[in-house]
Amino acid sequence: MISALQWISRGKALPHPKKYVLDDSEMDRVSNMANVQFEDAKAQLERAQRDIARGKDPFAPSTGDDDDDDDIDEHDRKDEDEDDAEMKDEELASTTTQENQKDTKQDPDDLSRYNLDEYDDEPGTDFNAGAFTNIRGLAVYQSNQDDPYITVNADAENDDEAEERQELEVYPTDNFIIAAKTEDDVSQLEAHIYAANDSNLYVHHDLMLPSFPLCLEWLDYSPARSIPASAADQNTTDAIAARTGANFIAVGTMDPEIEIWSMDVVDGMYPDAILGRKSETDQLNAALGTGKKKRKQSKPRVANADYHVDAVLGLSWNPIARNLLASASADGTVKLWDLSRPHTSESSSAFRSFNAHTDKVQSVAWQAKAIGGSGATTANPAVLLSGSYDKTIRVFDTRTPDTASVISIGSDVESVVWNGWNSGANTFLSSLESGLVQSFDIRNPTQSLWTLQAHDTACTSVDISPHIPGCILTASSDRSVKLWNLSEIESQAEVEKPSAINLVVSRDLGIGKIFASKFSPNDPLTLAAAGSGGQLQVFNALSNAGVRKTFGDRLRKLQGELKVDIDGTEQSRGDGVVRIEDDDDDSDDGDIVEADDMQD
């Protein structure tokens, strides 16, 4: 299944991603960040390998402190005895040969000493080539080019490197779509390339995750390294400038820690940063009790101000205060993390922590992340929005959190998003477990602007088109994605609300229950969706005639790179679905449902 996805705009990724290099400096960084003792781990691995070689169970409990030393000494003595036995056998064979030759000389008529039966045979070359025979004579070269016995064409190696470089190249017209996928208890980040010009979708590379992923957030701010490259302060002007224009994904999982990965590095083995204290939270999973009768209950998870103690359910990066990342957790807290500070397993602490809710916090969003129009530029970068399973939504200034606006709703919150198309980005949308979508204005939060029964089951995600005003996207566990039109926005007493909400298109993409769906940041009315089927699909809604008709006037106003041709025929556009091709892909293209007005 795919539990979360995230678009990355064109031009944000490096044209030629880097290969992960595990050198000494990287080992030091990982050891310092995660409190990993590589020398101890290496020694344990060597002992386990020796135990396996001797037929001993490496996981068997030790019988004493000197067991290993005794085993090693005994093993060495055994090797010496075997060497002595081999030498004695060779001496005995040599003595026997000499005696036979002596006996032969005593009989002048015996021709056996000439070995006439083997006269035509080639000289024998058989010898006992043990694994370590003549090991002292082994020549070692720094590279294959220096070894005279290796005649591999260097040009062929260069051709392979050039071919691999070309396969990994990211073109300026490519989008990354990052999917958090879990299959057979193995979780990973799959980085897909979507090329809109030829409707191509494929997996570019993937990264392994330690736990089930729940949420993703893109940021172009490089987190401070756990080991500075120099003694200079990492917050100098030059250091901050070096961290901008990056390409990172923050991942929230069932573990309390937040991992930040570079999407410009392939074959990565370890994240660039970990927010949280794994050295403390690892103990929370330990079973209570001692001996064989350990209870299945785990230790209580008591929230604190420094780090999360339960799963991270939501993330939001602040594009104005670029070093701030907000996180929402099942421990009921919302935390702010300063990415300009180095974080290690023992000293990683949140910049601020808010006990905003009494139950799990499902979603969080900065007002500066408002989608559409100029709302993000006029938004307050300190205002934060959070939605929880306690059936409340809170809007508060992180500088004065005690003066929060609390909105009570009738169901658990699935997701929240700010609407930048309204003046000042003062309105937001929330999707609920009941299938409702509601809009609120923070200037008058006592009642909703409008309520829409978007789905019959949980509305897992809601998104706002960054290109088309009045166009919203909803997705649900009922397996459908829907586009809605908020028509004729009216202003009444400084509160903006639509005169009607129309369903434009509903589609079952054939990918199971949908857990995540988002608009493309570059292509108008193109969206990505994924869910329980474990497949990522891209849907170009312009393939639908009803979509082109409804949003035609607004589409024609788009200029530059956003300009699209809406006069093409539906047949030439196909069904609009782009998927990863599979030889056994016989899945249904899905059903299209068009509807007229939906009541407000």
UniProtKB/TrEMBL annotation:
Q: Where does this protein have compositionally biased stretches of type Acidic residues? A: 64-89, 581-600
Chain positions covered by the region annotation Disordered: 47-125, 573-600
Q: Name one GO biological process term.
A: rRNA processing
Q: Name one Pfam family in it.
A: WD40
**Could you give one GO CC term from the UniProt record?**
nucleus
Q: Where are the WD repeats?
A: 305-347, 452-494
- Which PROSITE patterns is this protein grouped with? WD_REPEATS_1, WD_REPEATS_2, WD_REPEATS_REGION
Basic and acidic residues bias spans: 47-57, 100-116
Taxonomically, the superkingdom here is: Eukaryota
Question: What keywords does the record list, in alphabetical order?
Answer: Phosphoprotein, Repeat, WD repeat
Protein name (Swiss-Prot/TrEMBL): Related to WD repeat protein PWP1
Kindly list the organism's lineage: Eukaryota, Fungi, Dikarya, Basidiomycota, Ustilaginomycotina
